[in-house]
Amino acid sequence: MGKSLIRSLVALAARHARLTPAAVVSRSRRHTHVEARVAVYHFAHARGMSYAHIAAVLGRDHTTVLHGCQTVPQRLATSARYRALHEAMAASIAAGALDRHAAVRLPTDAAPPPPPPPPPPPPPPPSPPPRLDRIERADAEHRAQQIAGSAMLLDAMINQGVLAA
Questions:
Q1: Fewer CB atoms near the end CB (10 Å): N or C, the chain?
Q2: How many Cβ atoms are within 10 Å of 49's Cβ, its own excluded?
Q3: What is the count of structural domains for the chain?
Q4: What is the mean pLDDT of residues 16-36?
Q5: In a domain? residue 68
């Protein structure tokens, strides 16, 4: 009952105030927008909806809806434009003009889910071990021979007693 009734009231208020439904539910403070929004609050509350429920559906705080409903008597007394809107909406509601299937997007309607992110690119293939060119390989072999030769020389010196172990 809640969202469909509010959708219908928003569509009705938009039609009578000559606004778009998006303007009615917007955060705009223009008098025409505010008056249409207050009319939606008033008629939804008059239909038995709680301030909290109306606020939740329209993406507002319940005290905003409460304040809007409390200003209706003053608006009726001082604003001819609001009075005309209020009377036109009341007449339409009495005539059964609430469209239960109004295609009005409310602020609390779920947005369509975003498309899934693209899959991550595959990891690059492992790189082959570094290849030593001919000069680097010869240099490495030469160093290994030097180390081996130094080790043999040290062993010989220790065996001859020249160096102490």
A1: C
A2: 20
A3: 1
A4: 93
A5: yes
Q: Is residue 113 situated within a structural domain?
A: no
- The per-residue pLDDT for range 84-141, each reduced to its tens digit, is 999 999 999 888 877 654 656 676 666 677 888 899 999 888 887 766 666 677 777 8
Q: Where are the alpha helices (DSSP H) in the chain?
A: 2-17, 21-24, 31-46, 51-58, 62-70, 72-78, 80-94, 134-160
- The two tokens of residue 132 are 């030593």
**CATH code where residue 78 lies:** 1.10.1750.10
Q: What is the pTM of this model?
A: 0.62
Which long-range contacts link 27-35 to residues 24+ away (Cβ below 8 Å)?
Answer: 31/81, 32/81, 35/75, 35/79, 35/81, 35/82, 35/85
Structural domain containing residue 57: 1-101
Please report whether residue 77 resides in a domain: yes
